[in-house]
Amino acid sequence: MSNQYETIDGVTESKLVIKKSRFIGLATSTGNLESIEKFLSFVQSQFPGATHYCYAYKIKLVNQLCEYANDAGEPRNSAGQPILSVLKNSGLSNITCIVVRYYGGTKLGVGGLIRAYSECTRNCLGVAKRKTEILYSELQIQIGYSQVGTLFKLLDRFKGELINIHYNEVVNLKFKMRQQKVQHFQRQLDAINLVAKDI
């Protein structure tokens, strides 16, 4: 399993005019459903009064790939699916693309819409600056005071990054680690009767 993925940096934009209909494509990196909703609200506020806000996303949530397409009032599968198809073939992950349409008075037909939404999405991703992101898991563990030194040595060896630590009757630690290292790290914990849980 890969411990990294490629996505885009910032927000990228493309514009297309077909028979007086204006298409504006915007794409950004999104890691969860909340960030997708925020991006959609942002685009709607930046381009008020548009006829359609069609979009698709492709994100990974807890080892499950989530893909979704929304035609936003266009004929079925004429907008959202063409956008999603381009996303799926892009090699990019954790990404959302919204194509805003201002209707120009001439119907394009389903075939024309598919071509327009596909082209606008391709143009949008084509000008995007790409970046590589590392996949991390966030973990938490409870240990006795006598085990703190041993755990810190293990975290150092596996390049774990401490998020926070609380000292009570026992010590509560939260940390993050590259996903590809977690399984081996857990085996080392098993050997000293410790268990780290996913947050």
Describe this structure in words.
This protein is an alpha+beta fold and 199 residues long. It has 2 domains: 4-133, Impact, N-terminal domain (Ribosomal Protein S5, domain 2); 135-198, 2-Layer Sandwich (Alpha-Beta Plaits). It is built from 5 helices and 11 strands; from the N terminus they run βββαββαβαββαββαβ. The chain has helices at residues 33-46, 80-88, 109-126, 148-157, 179-191, and strands spanning 4-8, 11-18, 21-29, 52-61, 64-70, 95-102, 130-134, 136-143, 161-167, 171-178, 197-198. A 5-stranded antiparallel beta sheet has the order 2-3-6-4-5, sandwiched between helices. Helix 2 (80-88) runs parallel beside helix 3. The longest helix is centred in the middle third of the chain and has 18 residues, at 109-126. The chain is elongated. The mean pLDDT is 91.
Topology:
Blueprint: E1 4-8, E2 11-18, E3 21-29, H1 33-46, E4 52-61, E5 64-70, H2 80-88, E6 95-102, H3 109-126, E7 130-134, E8 136-143, H4 148-157, E9 161-167, E10 171-178, H5 179-191, E11 197-198
Antiparallel strand pairs: 1-7, 2-3, 3-6, 4-5, 4-6, 8-10, 8-11, 9-10
Strand order of the largest sheet: 2-3-6-4-5
The residue fraction in helices comes out at 25-40%
Q: Judging from the principal axes of the Cα atoms, what is the shape? A: elongated
Radius of gyration (Å): 22 Å
CATH superfamily of the largest domain: Impact, N-terminal domain
Number of domains: 2
Give the averaged pLDDT, no decimals. Answer: 91
Number of strands: 11
* Content-based structural category: alpha+beta
What amount of the residues lies in strands?
Answer: 35-45%
